[in-house]
Write a structure and sequence with these properties.
The chain is mostly beta strands. The chain has one domain: TonB-dependent receptor, beta-barrel domain (Maltoporin, Chain A), CATH 2.40.170. The protein has helices at 54-60, 517-521, and strands spanning 48-53, 77-78, 90-91, 103-107, 110-111, 135-142, 156-162, 169-183, 186-203, 206-218, 223-227, 234-236, 238-241, 247-273, 276-295, 297-299, 316-332, 336-355, 368-372, 377-388, 395-415, 426-448, 451-471, 476-479, 483-499, 502-513, 530-531, 539-552, 555-576, 583-608, 611-626, 644-652, 658-667, 690-700, 705-712, 720-721, 723-724, 729-737.
């Protein structure tokens, strides 16, 4: 089955001091990528960070959805397969796209990460909860060095800050893109349309903001149907090889998605007293996806299109209606700041319908399955405060309490008509819950004006319970055991500012990442079976970083050395299921993994007159050090973690109204298996290197009208990261501000 993805609408909670709306100015801002300190927050995270703001996004990135805004930040990769993709996990310095639970994404304090799993499908962040036009800035914190965040911060923490109006404002955005896709027997022109609007105003102490966004997209095939040879009695198809080098025939394509998505949001913030604000954010995300298939083969006797049963797994209808709610109260004073925030995310309606019959007859109906995730979701609650000991903030003591509750409720039913029939007998069920309670504290102590020591710790109590698995074939009905653990994670950082332009930092952090409810309890049967493990142990990460950064009026340069060692690493791997020849995906505790490397990030404005440049290079030596279950994995590269990643962005501000940007993204060869037994990368299900160059031209026609045109993947690099990725795509965008 195509992994059930869920994309919801973000519930960003306005900050105590909301950012003003971005306005056009006489000259586009020169910054491309800023790697500098963010204004101090309650969390006061002592981490290396990268930042990008709204003006830079508008100038340099062909951004249709919010995850596009991260594409040039150091060491990061969002696996976005096409516009509108709801399965877009975040990969970091040390973890690949299959480890979504090793990073955190927040919008104004509200969790966007779907910690119901640790994969690149249902557990992908809910990016669609934020629209690009409401962003004020995006910050990325690298490594688990802050006590304010749970062990899921092993890789990175992304914090998105959105804005509220200070006066009446209204915006309208519209855009269109066209992908030209040509591979095997698929030759398509794939259009996408986006239209959105915002309106907001302030009425004394009350600020209101509403937004709506609609995206209609057509994507390239996500799957190819293959066979070991040419089926008898048919003609056509294309010869190829598997990722292990075995010859195959490409019989056709499937998972060809057409999506209609709508995002609606309302934000309200009330200043009830000096320095005290209460805020509510409600969001609704609607997704309607139809996926189809096409065959490359004909029946020899009749000339009619020929299909096999394998085509049906890439044909489906997926409907989502997800609600999000967030309520917060914030306060700030001379010495003490505080925040209370609670969020609720609900899969109110989440239904996938899929045929079990063979095409083309199945296109008209017939037997199939209905999978419902209604009732899945999560709740979070946080209380935190920050106290400064004196006007010089000799001590900044931050404390907090946290609670979260995650629920998985997945039920698959047989149906006599997969298109419109009612649910029949239950044939697959995955249910379970996890909850975590935590207390944390950290103190940033200025030993002398140039030296700050930050020490802290986080204590967590975790429980997994109510696990239940039911399967009709093979016959299974199991109530899973209850699990619990409590762990303490110490943190320490020492920062030295020897001069106005330099910052040197040494950081250490221990992080415990607890198994997600999906790793423990979720079963998937097709196209590759996924087997849960109710006895998983939490993984323990020990991370260190040494960094040196120089910054001046024209930008910054930073070098970071990082090291990460994980014991009992939770790694998902595809291989033969125990005692059978059938392939399956399963999570196991790998004894020990290690990832170490170096990251260089540079940003310079006016490197040449009116030319701004930024870039990054990351080298990572990430490998399995010990694996008693699969000794062949020892000494091999970790799945989906390339040795090299690089970005380069250059913007020429030709005039005060026109900017031209060229940007590049690169990653070296990757592997999809933990034992690196997939030597062929540039094939379906393989992981290959890529060299992608993007172009963008932005024109400020007037104070209220801006236009932009661009091309992503202008060189038409054809590559796979398991799925085929987008080929050359043209963009045209416009925005009007009232």
């Amino acid at each position: 089955m195509k992994a059930l993805s869920c994309a919801l609408l973000c519930a960003p909670l306005p900050l105590a001091l909301a950012a003003a709306p971005a306005r056009a100015t006489d000259a586009p801002p020169p910054a491309i990528l800023v790697t500098a300190q963010k204004p101090q927050t309650i969390e006061n995270a002592p981490s290396t960070r990268a930042t990008i703001d709204a003006a830079t996004i508008a100038t340099t990135i062909n951004a249709v959805t919010v995850e596009d805004t991260l594409k040039y930040l150091p060491s990061l990769l969002v696996r976005k397969r096409h516009i509108g993709d709801t399965q877009a996990p975040l990969a970091t310095r040390t973890s690949g796209v299959g480890s979504s639970a090793r990073s955190l994404v927040y919008a104004d304090g509200a969790l966007l990460s779907a910690l119901i799993g640790n994969n690149n499908s249902t557990a992908s962040p809910r990016w669609s909860l934020v629209s690009p036009q409401e962003i004020a800035r995006v910050d990325v914190l690298y490594g688990p060095f802050s006590a304010a965040y749970p062990g899921n911060s092993i890789g990175a923490v992304v914090t998105i800050t959105t804005r509220l109006p200070d006066a009446f404002e209204a915006t309208m955005t519209a855009g269109s893109s066209v992908q030209i896709f040509d591979q095997f027997g698929t030759h398509e022109t794939l259009p996408t349309r986006q239209i959105g609007g915002t309106v907001g105003d302030r009425f004394g102490p009350l600020a209101l903001f509403a937004s709506v966004d609609h995206v209609a997209s057509h994507g390239q095939p996500l799957l190819y149907v293959t066979a070991n040879g040419q089926p008898a009695g048919t003609t056509g198809g294309y010869a190829g090889v598997t990722r292990t080098g075995s010859p195959i025939s490409y019989l056709g394509a499937s998972g060809i998605e057409h999506q209609d998505q709508d995002q609606l949001k309302l934000k309200a913030a009330l200043d009830v007293a000096a320095g005290v604000r209460v805020a509510y954010v409600g969001g609704l995300f609607l997704n309607d996806t139809d996926a189809s298939a096409e065959t490359y083969r004909d029946t020899a006797a009749t000339g009619l299109p020929a299909y096999t049963s394998a085509f049906s797994t890439g044909v489906y209808h997926y409907a989502e209606r997800h609600w999000s709610h967030a309520l917060s109260a914030t306060g700030s004073g001379d010495r003490f700041d505080w925040q209370l925030i609670g969020t609720l995310y609900d899969f109110a309606h989440d239904v996938m319908r899929m045929p079990t019959g063979t095409l083309p007859a199945a296109n008209s109906g017939g037997a199939g399955t209905i999978t419902r995730l209604d009732g899945t979701g999560w709740k979070t609650l946080d209380a935190k405060g920050s106290w400064r000991s004196d006007a010089a903030a000799t001590h900044t003591l931050s404390v907090g309490a946290h609670g979260d509750w995650f629920t998985l409720d997945s039920n698959r039913y047989a149906t006599s008509d997969w298109i419109g029939g009612s649910a029949g007998a239950l044939n697959l069920q995955s249910k379970g819950r996890t909850r975590t309670a935590a207390l944390w504290a950290q103190d940033a102590w200025k030993l002398v004006p140039a030296v700050t020591l930050t020490v802290g710790g986080r204590y967590e109590w975790w429980t997994a319970y109510d696990g239940r698995n039911v399967s009709a074939s093979p016959l299974l009905a199991v109530t899973q055991p209850r699990l619990s653990a409590d762990k303490f994670s110490p943190k320490a950082s020492l920062a030295w500012t020897p001069g106005h332009d330099w910052t040197l930092r040494a950081a250490f952090g221990e992080a415990w990442r607890f198994p997600t409810v999906g790793e423990l309890y979720q079963i998937v049967t097709t196209p590759v079976p996924a087997v849960p493990n109710p006895d998983l142990k939490p993984e323990r990460a020990l991370s260190e970083e040494l960094s040196a950064e120089r910054h001046d009026a024209h930008g910054s340069i930073r070098v970071s050395l990082f090291n990460e060692a994980i014991r009992d690493a939770l790694v998902s791997q595809t291989g033969p299921l125990a005692g059978t020849a059938q392939l399956g995906t399963f999570v196991q505790n790998v004894d020990r993994t290690r990832a170490r490397g170096v990251e260089l990030a540079v940003q310079r404005t006016d490197l040449l007159p009116r030319v701004d440049v930024s870039g990054s290079v990351t080298y990572a030596d990430a490998e399995t050090r010990r694996d008693t279950v699969l000794p062949a994995a020892q000494g091999k590269l970790l799945p989906q973690v390339p040795r090299w990643k690089a970005t380069l962005v250059a913007t020429w501000r030709a005039t005060d109204r026109v900017s031209l940007t060229a940007a590049g993204r690169y990653a070296s060869r990757q592997y999809g298996t933990i034992d690196n037994s997939d030597p062929v990368g540039n094939t379906f299900q393989g992981f290959y290197t890529y060299h992608v160059v993007d172009l963008r031209a932005a024109l400020r026609v007037s104070e209220r009208l801006t236009l932009a045109a661009g091309v992503d993947n202008v060189g038409n690099d054809t590559y796979f990261l398991y799925h085929p990725f987008p080929q050359r795509t043209l963009f045209l965008q416009g925005a009007v501000t009232l």
